[in-house]
């Protein structure tokens, strides 16, 4: 009985996770420049993966410990990767969107 | 030097615990568990010997109840902010006129420890509309989807929110 309930809760988590993936993909297509695209994809995929892992963990309880460790690694490494990519892209000369309002990072380089 | 050497055994223990969390399954036989434990100890000690000089920290002092309490508070604030960030991003990408106003702002931080800065940067990256790009001595450069304020102090208030205070409780 309880396993059935957990199974359905897990399915709901997996559904929410895939919904976030969909939103991230839409953001990836619609956003105007690299930095905004990375914003859309980093956040939504991180929460999507978390939701997925927790959902699968609820469906198969004996995997829960492993899945939580994987979730921890994803949360620790995904934003570091995003920062490194954004920084490398900036230093490689990829421009901000022309309607961007402020660029303090450029001012730093001019000093 | 002394804090460095003190933290070596803790690194090995943490690595071993992560490994055991991975290999443990309900109903695993004693024999194979001992095998896994043996391999885990060898690998944990080897990795510790190779990498310990890149880790600096307080070792067991991190488990002081005050730090643990702050960290738990930080964790739940972080989860909540992450959900908010995703709903915010969903609102932006689904609205037809794409209401964005991007830019890179600078915020200062008073956190000193590299680990604290890492956690703050990660938290900023995963919370509403912000992406940490770089740190320098004065603070962090942050790409912001909807720039509400270009001023360093007020932007910092909005972006860092409660994170910095909680992290100072954890690391100082």
Question: What attributes does this structure have?
Answer:
heterodimer; A: 111 residues; mainly alpha; 81% helix; elongated; B: 172 residues; 2 domains; three-stranded antiparallel sheet
Fold and architecture overview:
The complex is a heterodimer of chains A (111) and B (172). By secondary structure, chain A is mostly helical. Chain A has one domain (2-110). Helices cover 81% and strands 0% of the residues of chain A. Chain A has four helices and no strands. The longest helix of chain A has 29 residues, at 2-30. Chain A is elongated. The termini of chain A are far apart. The mean pLDDT of chain A is 83. Chain B has 172 residues and is mostly helical. Chain B has two domains: 2-61, no CATH class; 65-171, no CATH class. Chain B is 60% helix and 11% strand. Chain B has six helices and three strands. Chain B has helices at 2-23, 30-51, 65-94, 114-125, 152-160, 163-171; strands at 103-108, 130-136, 139-144. In chain B, strand 2 and strand 3 (139-144) form a beta hairpin. Chain A binds chain B through residues 20, 23-24, 26-27, 30-33, 35-36, 38-40, 42-44, 46-47, 62, 65-66, 68-69, 75-76, 78-80, 82-83, 86-87, 90, 96-97, 99-106, 108, and chain B through 18, 21-22, 24-26, 82-83, 85-86, 89-90, 92-94, 98, 100-106, 118, 121-122, 125-126, 129-134, 136, 141, 143, 145, 147, 150.
